[in-house]
Design a protein that fits this description.
Strand content: 25-35%
CATH topology: tt1808, chain A
Distance between the termini: 59 Å
CATH architecture: Alpha-Beta Complex
Number of domains: 1
Oligomer: single chain
Largest sheet: 6 strands, mixed
CATH superfamily: tt1808, chain A
Structural class: alpha+beta
Length: 179
């Protein structure tokens, strides 16, 4: 008995842009976004965006903090991180260049995705650094790109120090990220 090959449709950004609802597109496969995040998740995401913006202002950097914006990674991949820091200014529509910083705030619904697929995607597509913020235990894990362009995993102490946009150093107090 022979089985017919399983058909898995492949979609592109052009298809994605016409869809209703909240989706991401992972290597041509549509992925439904989880229902709206809960209050604590959103409070932490908001605090992360605020603290990054403050750090940018204090360092006199020209970067922009962009919460909940689509990053068109390739013709068949679009993701919507919780927060992005871009050195390219404010895009007219979507981010289309690798962000300096990508932040995901973990939730029960997204934990597995954020720690596996997205970590690999952000690494493979040249995000400068990836911060995973966990409201469940008030922790932050960072993947920083080394001079060899490889990820280095670390856990910051009381402060996060990040170099972005070639000449800016940001310092964020981790104590301000959690309600």
């Amino acid at each position: 008995m022979s089985a017919a090959p399983k058909y898995i449709p492949q979609y592109t950004v052009s298809d994605y842009l016409g869809w209703d609802g909240d989706w991401e597109l992972w290597s041509g496969i549509p992925v439904a976004m989880s229902p709206s995040p809960f209050g604590r998740h959103q409070a932490v995401a908001s605090r992360v965006a605020f603290e990054l913006r403050q750090a940018i202002v204090e360092s006199d950097c020209q970067a922009e903090v962009l919460p909940e914006i689509d990053w068109i990674v390739s013709d068949d991949t679009v993701v919507r991180p919780d927060v992005i820091v871009s050195c390219e200014g404010i895009p007219d529509r979507h981010v289309q260049t690798p962000p300096a910083i990508v932040v995901e705030v973990l939730s029960d619904a997204t934990r597995e995705r954020d720690l596996t697929f997205k970590q690999e995607l952000y690494r493979d597509h040249d995000a400068g650094s990836y911060l995973v913020v966990d409201p469940a235990d008030n922790s932050v894990v960072m993947w920083l790109r080394g001079s060899d362009r490889q990820w280095r995993r670390s856990r910051p102490g009381s402060q996060i120090k990040l170099r972005v946009c070639e000449d800016c150093e940001l310092t964020v107090d981790c104590g301000n990220l959690f309600p």
